[in-house]
Amino acid sequence: MPTRLTNFFLRTLREDPADAEVTSHKLLVRAGYIRRQAPGIFAWLPLGLRVKAKIERIVREEMTAAGAHEVHFPALLPREPYELTNRWTEYGDALFRLQDRKGADYLLAPTHEESFTLLVKDLYSSYKDLPLTIFQIQDKYRDEARPRAGLLRGREFTMKDAYSFDVSDEGLDASYQAQRDAYERIFTRLGLEYVIVQADAGAMGGSKSEEFLHPTPVGEDTFVRSAGGYAANVEAFTTVVPDPIPFDGLPAPVVVDSPNTPTIQTLVDLANAEVPRPDGRDWTAADTLKNVVLALTQLDGSRELVVVGVPGDREVEMKRVEVAFAPAEVEPATEAYFAKHPGLVKGYIGPWSEDGPVLGEESATGIRYLLDPRVVDGTEWITGANVDQKHVFGLVAGRDFVADGTVEASDVRDGDPAPDGSGPVEIARGMEIGHVFQLGRKYAEALGLKVLDENGKLATVTMGSYGIGVTRILAIIAELNNDEKGLVWPAAVAPFDVHVLATGKDQAAFDAAERIVAELEESGREVLYDDRPKLSPGVKFADAELIGVPKIVIAGRGVAEGVVELWDRASGDRVQLPIDGVVAALDAD
Amino acid sequence: MPTRLTNFFLRTLREDPADAEVTSHKLLVRAGYIRRQAPGIFAWLPLGLRVKAKIERIVREEMTAAGAHEVHFPALLPREPYELTNRWTEYGDALFRLQDRKGADYLLAPTHEESFTLLVKDLYSSYKDLPLTIFQIQDKYRDEARPRAGLLRGREFTMKDAYSFDVSDEGLDASYQAQRDAYERIFTRLGLEYVIVQADAGAMGGSKSEEFLHPTPVGEDTFVRSAGGYAANVEAFTTVVPDPIPFDGLPAPVVVDSPNTPTIQTLVDLANAEVPRPDGRDWTAADTLKNVVLALTQLDGSRELVVVGVPGDREVEMKRVEVAFAPAEVEPATEAYFAKHPGLVKGYIGPWSEDGPVLGEESATGIRYLLDPRVVDGTEWITGANVDQKHVFGLVAGRDFVADGTVEASDVRDGDPAPDGSGPVEIARGMEIGHVFQLGRKYAEALGLKVLDENGKLATVTMGSYGIGVTRILAIIAELNNDEKGLVWPAAVAPFDVHVLATGKDQAAFDAAERIVAELEESGREVLYDDRPKLSPGVKFADAELIGVPKIVIAGRGVAEGVVELWDRASGDRVQLPIDGVVAALDAD
């Protein structure tokens, strides 16, 4: 049965919704696919539900083909398991929490690691039961601070989340690879170009993590890639560490008055004028050591100052710092912190003073000091002398100062060497479309998931977690497939295969359209039929362009001469066809 | 691709779950269909999800065939619309309420009248857009005081809820009828016998309401039906009101000491001995008037006493009283209430005293007084004289006392006359499987849903609401289709069409089973294949009986002689068939 516009729940809108920031949001609302109910919370109208169901079907088919079994967990879950993994606290304000009538704590699940782990613990007990991968397609909740961008970052959203369970690390590798392969097939079927990038896995206690990014200049994520095949998001990029340099023959550090050095360049100029290097090389901004004071707040609420030293030609990139210190929260230290630490001379902070070490757990201040990996032993630096209006020149790492460790805090730049030796990287932007993740044994340990192994001993299970945001994917496809007239769906996820328009006042056009609709349905195609009488062709064309079904058939004035038009929404091409030639033309397409 | 038990997420259990009260709950957990996550909250395992999907498909097909369009609303909704309809308060403790990070109030929707109404208001503006029926299949939340009975009454549950929108009452009748017809088709396809009973619609402000009940002695709902076709749930049953009787010639009331009348019978005996009727008829229990004091708590928290008078041979039935006074809460008055009302003499309460009226808004106490509809003018009663140890005999309704109205408070009994004149009713029990409901204009008025009518005037839309509990239906089907060995699914909703078992240690049996599985799949059937090696036939048989797929094929020892067994789960019949004759036998079935 075709869907007839005379009897369909649809109202297209000519105006963009006032709250919409991104194209997909604007068009999905205007074309009658979704409707906002609250910030980040949407209702699905019939057109939107059809597209969502098609994406879900593709995901489900590929999950099943990869040997995963479908289950379905509640959205409303008790607090206890999330307490055991600390996520009840770690999730912070992003977790929707509530109480039932008895005062018991519940949450709306943002992901279901705990539930899946406990279910397997509940039912399985032997290595013979594994490997196992189970998945669900389910509505999740995250109380985003600023829900925006429509479905790209909603507070209620549909996800496919899968979890694998293995006894051995090799088993996890195989399960991970099977999901990774399935993701490649899913995104290929969805027509979504992708790059698989290394992602940071450390904070979650896992061992390996990759993101599927769709490369696009309007993407919200930054990643780097080399011509030699390296790809990582900036949080996961690791700096190539130079070899250390022998200290022999390096001059002693020199403290110099530096009252008029408001910029790094003025400081460098002063260095080149006052403390020329014995080997004649100029000092550059890359030889200055910038010490940035950060305040960390741990999950238990405790606070700590940490100083991060990076070359002066680099910036401290907060996204990388946040990953490095996760799950602690990081913010630049405020004046209040400085007031509490008179040992730090603001504007002239450095690890060394003529009175001894200033930074580091063993120093006078006791403040933890972490360095960019480029600051290897034997490198010489210009930095603050920890005295007002004085800098020290030629301070040698490893000789004059030591740190408590290194940290990946600097920004990554075009031309930085890839850590795998595959050449210089370039910075690119993309949208996250999937995430595969080796959780390892973190959740199994927290929740006590063990099975008997081949030797009859209890072994903690190792897990993987694999996510695709179904509603986010839908928005990304809409974001990538549109023009000024409206949506342009790829065939695999279009709400209908063909949109048939009967135009004009001539009954013959409507009769021809009815015949074509019947033939199209006979051929197995899903048809949206605009059978609305008394509407101008222009209104019908505009609706068809806005809705974005890939193939449009127009039965209008030409019917008198036995022809209709076949209109390709993407290319805009229109060709005339005999009335009974539509199916054949589409078959040949 | 068949589902192989060597690689399927399933663990059957031999023991009933400790918290399970009903058969469906026990069997669905033991057979690996569902798993409890919290009180009234369940996870769906692969088998359960398959059955659920089949029920949903049948519901979806019939909704679509009835012209309804599918949409999908969020579970998490803002407070405001529910405030406008007063349901934020009316729902009481059964509503899950929460706040987002900004402190805004949200709820987990128990049903979506408000959302549907606002969506139509948002998009439609003309009578030409109507009639419209839209539906969703969606997870809902109700914080039941005592979640029990597994899926029969969960706190998270899946419902199909549909809503119709019309301009005229006739339109609503037609939309209502279309849904009612669709429900008949759905329950027929699901193999669920049903009775359509009148239900109470008053409290919700609606005009007409019917429930689909599955008649079964273990049902939790009571309904009445007559041989002549009347059917109603007890809450909706209305008493046939007798004609009034002329007062002429009725004797004056007589007050009698009645110290030793602990029961109604002793009171009746006293009456027959002390105050014989002039016409010689005996007094009976039906001539006594029992006055029951109830405490009402209104939604705004205000409290009120009300006295309900019913014939002494009837009981006050709280379910009927609750409907009559809804949305107020009703409870029997406690001693504390009596203490506050010294005008009421406990054990001897009556509407009349020698000093004047005792009950009624115009009386000395001012307490509202409502009567069973059988207490018509001219009927004579034995009741309390409102003096300790005294009753009054021959008190005539309408002459000696008046009430503030009538109330349907008495229990309904076998033999009571049906209100439509179709003869005496019998009491029966059933399980609610669906509910269709003419909401009328209540929600449209509260939320301002108006459209321009044919005359260009704004008209408030009239609505219907139509619900089927998908997960409840699944539990009911399980509750009705089982034996001591396990589940016995009807073919329409079974998780698989055929369950093939390979038994024994002979590879030939497994080879034959593989061939049969391939042929069954070729024929379009969904197959569960028990290919587990090294398991005794007994274990496999027990699992097959527990899981309850309707047709079971056993490839075992007989394979050597070229035969397998076809086992009908429901009848228990087993027949031998040639190995290549399974599909033909099932086709012929």
UniProtKB/TrEMBL annotation, chains A, B:
It is an enzyme of class 6 (ligase). The keyword Cytoplasm applies. GO terms for molecular function: aminoacyl-tRNA deacylase activity; ATP binding; proline-tRNA ligase activity. GO terms for biological process: prolyl-tRNA aminoacylation. Its EC number is 6.1.1.15. PROSITE patterns: AA_TRNA_LIGASE_II. Keywords: Aminoacyl-tRNA synthetase, ATP-binding, Cytoplasm, Ligase, Nucleotide-binding, Protein biosynthesis. The keyword Acetylation does not apply. Residues 48-490 form the Aminoacyl-transfer RNA synthetases class-II family profile domain. Signal peptide: none annotated. It is found in: Cytoplasm. Catalyzes the attachment of proline to tRNA(Pro) in a two-step reaction: proline is first activated by ATP to form Pro-AMP and then transferred to the acceptor end of tRNA(Pro). As ProRS can inadvertently accommodate and process non-cognate amino acids such as alanine and cysteine, to avoid such errors it has two additional distinct editing activities against alanine. One activity is designated as 'pretransfer' editing and involves the tRNA(Pro)-independent hydrolysis of activated Ala-AMP. Homodimer. Belongs to the class-II aminoacyl-tRNA synthetase family. ProS type 1 subfamily. HAMAP family: Pro_tRNA_synth_type1. Consists of three domains: the N-terminal catalytic domain, the editing domain and the C-terminal anticodon-binding domain. This is Proline--tRNA ligase. It comes from Agromyces mediolanus (Corynebacterium mediolanum). The gene is proS.
